[in-house]
Design goal:
Layout (H helix, E strand, L loop, with lengths): L5 E6 L6 H11 L6 E6 L10 H11 L7 H13 L5 H11 L15 H22 L2 E6 L6 H13 L5 E7 L13 E5 L5 H12 L6 H11 L3 H14 L11 H11 L4 H10 L2 E3 H7 L4 H13 L3 E4 L6 E4 L2 H9 L3 H18 L2 H5 L1 H11 L2 H17 L3 H14 L7 H22 L4 H17 L5 H14 L3 H17 L3 H17 L3 H14 L8 H5 L3 H15 L3 H18 L2 H17 L3 H18 L2 H17 L3 H17 L6 H27 L1
Parallel strand pairs: 1-4, 1-5, 2-3, 3-4
Antiparallel strand pairs: 6-8, 7-8
Length: 702
């Protein structure tokens, strides 16, 4: 209430009582005037960007299964009005996140995937802060050991904003994979430890009530549960329900206890097992579609499971949603199945999702991938993992993309050796290379490994169209790492393959990469000729999308290189002319990678001209776009040149500090190409600072 935002991370092993603690807090504050936002992470969606947020927004907006896009749009706008004044700006972003088609309701937003990601996160944070202006806000995020990277990034940003807000954020996590919250000063970490004998006996006594359990049974329960509250509760209930009050009759484990409880509730074990294959949370509609139990018996079984407090219910049939009391209860039911039956159920669930819930293909390919993986159907699983990876890549969720594509490669091991397996792996490795370039840089080891394996697969498969982007990826990897001989050799292979297959676009890329390596060798005239040859082959229609396949638009890249080459060769007029052609082409393309490299090259060009004003402006553009889009290489280059410009106009201390930071960030990407240019700026700036200090000292002595 005082406007001092706080966060509490509750850490404890499974069954220790984290969820019970959360519920106790919710019960205790139920009468207070505040807003509760609850987010539940899931092991099935660890790689789906913002999945907990999507679920919370859908629930808060009151979506019904029969709602069409227009109804969902109206409900989304009503939800947003509670926290933001600018609904027209936030609504298209949130609607896209929720998979709502808005048609022409709002003006089109010309945003790249990374810009959409950044703006969506900003809209979500603004909505939350807007709610806080009306009432205090309690944010509950459960099971963050299963949080996806994008949601973790979002709530890390929220933490930065709540220091002076009426917000309490409560997170729960198991010790393994607990979130890295960046050492925020207003995060308190609370560890829940196992219970001692006294609290254990108190729980058993409370549950047993008037049924007096013998001391030996008390002791046996305490010994086998080892102070874990969920274990204590479940074993005690198992003993009481079965009347096992003699020593030696207590179930030996939580697993045995849960199975015994399931068996004692008539007609529920099979229903619980099918539900467990769906997940900890499961909708009635999907369960009914895959359960072999008749619908009347199914509802009766669910009622009995609810009465036994093994599952909880939300909503009313047929739109009811259920959740197992605890992930361990779900796991016990799932693991009680024979492997063959478990695989069959997962296959049935995947097919039911495809048939009855076709939107799952586009909205949740990761879910289908997981079910097909559990089913042992490798071909379908690999295809959905690839789709999930490419979808995450399109959303600029690079960590999730790498996770999905890597999962696909793991599943691929189940394939028989042959051409089909090689084709699947090639597509995965190529997408993995693109994700690594975007997220970690051209020179990252992960980039090199993905393209090296993709090249092997191209050679094994023979004449495949993927060869050209693969050769480019390998050449630019070696080039950025300073391995010029390898980069030049692969670029020559690319040019030769393009000529052999009459692929003009590939020839253009080959000339471009050869020009890059020749420049680093100091063969400036030959480098210029190679870039001129590449530029002559550029077709605005055919190659407009070259930035999507080859990371950067070839025309912009050639013009940027040529501006510097003509400057080095002493033709200032031509150099400036080429440089001035770049911005118009960048504006035409609306491709963030190309825009970022153009800004980076532009600031370097102006640094060579000793034009600190324009160098600083373009360097700041590279920093801003590189930060927004997640391009570490161009952000680092911009920092070095911006620091140089600062030092040149007299702000030496700030400038040198920024240059130092930029050089370190550039090295961290693994890139070697360009380091001599950047490093040369350092002694120039340091030398000027020393000269100024000496001059000031001399003037003072006069």
């Amino acid at each position: 209430m005082a406007g001092e935002g706080q966060a509490v991370l509750v850490v404890g092993e499974a069954g220790i009582g984290k969820s019970r603690l959360v519920q106790a807090l919710l019960d205790e504050t139920a009468e207070d005037s505040h807003i509760v936002l609850r987010y539940q992470c899931s092991p099935q969606y660890t790689g789906t960007p913002l999945w907990p947020v999507v679920q919370q927004l859908s629930f808060a907006a009151g979506f019904a299964p029969e709602d069409n896009d227009e109804q969902k749009r109206q409900k989304t706008e009503a939800l947003l009005r509670r926290g933001t004044d600018n609904v027209s700006e936030a609504a298209p972003l949130i609607a896209a996140l929720l998979g709502i088609q808005i048609g022409s309701t709002y003006p089109p937003q010309e945003l790249s995937s990374q810009q959409r990601r950044t703006h969506t996160q900003a809209a979500l944070i603004q909505q939350l802060i807007g709610l806080e202006r009306r009432h205090p806000v309690l944010i509950v995020i459960e099971d963050v050991h299963w949080i996806d990277p994008t949601t973790l990034e979002l709530f890390s940003q929220v933490l930065d904003r709540i220091a002076n807000a009426r917000v309490l954020m409560l997170l729960t996590s198991r010790p393994d994979n607990q979130p890295n919250l960046g050492g925020h000063p207003h995060v308190t970490r609370l560890t829940l430890n196992r219970l001692g004998r006294g609290p254990t006996e108190a729980i058993v006594s409370h549950l047993s009530g008037s049924q007096n359990l013998p001391p030996a049974v008390f002791k046996e329960i305490a010994g086998r549960t080892d102070g874990v509250p969920l274990f204590i509760e479940e074993l005690t209930k198992a003993v009481l329900e079965a009347g096992m009050t003699a020593p030696g009759t207590v179930p030996v484990s939580l697993y045995a206890s849960l199975l015994a409880r399931l068996d004692r509730v008539p007609g529920v074990r099979e229903v619980a097992q099918v539900a467990a294959c769906i997940g900890r949370e499961f909708p009635y509609s999907l369960l009914a579609a895959v359960s072999p139990v008749p619908e009347t018996d199914l509802q009766s079984a669910l009622d009995r499971l609810t009465a036994a407090e093994l599952i909880f219910q939300r909503g009313t049939p047929p739109e009811t949603h259920y959740a197992f009391k605890h992930a361990l209860v779900r796991d016990a039911a799932h693991e009680s199945l024979l492997k063959s039956r478990r695989q069959q159920l997962h296959a049935n669930i995947a097919r039911a999702l495809e048939e009855h819930f076709p939107e799952t293909r586009d909205m949740e390919p990761e879910l289908l991938a997981r079910h097909y993986t559990e089913a042992g159907l490798a071909e379908q699983a690999v295809e959905y993992w690839r789709q999930a990876g490419e979808q995450a890549l399109a959303r600029s969720a690079m960590a999730e993309a790498v996770t999905h594509l890597t999962e696909g490669l793991v599943v691929l091991q189940a394939f028989d050796l042959g051409k089909e397996r090689q084709r699947h792996e090639l597509r995965l490795q190529l997408a993995l290379g693109q994700a690594s370039i975007a997220g970690k840089g051209f020179a990252a080891p992960e980039t090199g490994r993905a393209y090296a394996r993709a090249h092997e697969l191209c050679l094994e498969l023979g004449n495949v169209p993927e060869l050209f982007p693969v050769l480019y990826g390998q050449s630019v990897f070696y080039f950025q790492r300073g391995a010029l001989r390898e980069a030049h050799g692969i670029a020559s292979d690319l040019l030769r393959a393009g000529r052999e297959q009459a692929n003009v676009a590939a020839q253009m890329i080959g000339h471009r990469m050869i020009g890059s390596t020749l420049c680093q060798y100091g063969r400036f005239a030959e480098s210029r000729d190679a870039f001129e040859a590449a530029l002559a082959l550029y077709d605005p229609e055919r190659d407009r999308g070259s930035g999507l396949v080859y990371a950067i638009d070839s025309r912009v890249m050639c013009l940027s290189w040529l501006s510097q080459l003509y400057l080095i060769l002493g033709d200032l007029e031509q150099a400036v002319a080429y440089s001035r052609r770049v911005p118009a082409h960048v504006d035409e393309l609306e491709h963030p990678g190309t825009a970022a490299v153009a800004l980076a090259w532009g600031c370097i060009f102006n640094q060579l001209l000793r034009d600190s004003h324009n160098a600083a402006a373009q360097a700041q553009g590279a920093i801003t776009l590189g930060t927004e889009q997640g391009f570490p290489l161009y952000r680092a280059a911009g920092s070095v040149i911006h620091g140089w410009a600062q030092a040149k106009v007299g702000r030496s201390t700030e400038g040198l500090a920024e240059m130092k930071q930029g050089l370190a960030a550039y090295r961290a990407t693994g890139a070697e190409c360009g380091r001599p240019t950047f490093s040369a700026c350092w002694p120039i700036s340091v030398g000027k600072q020393i000269v100024r200090r000496k001059a000031l000292a001399s003037w003072t002595r006069l």
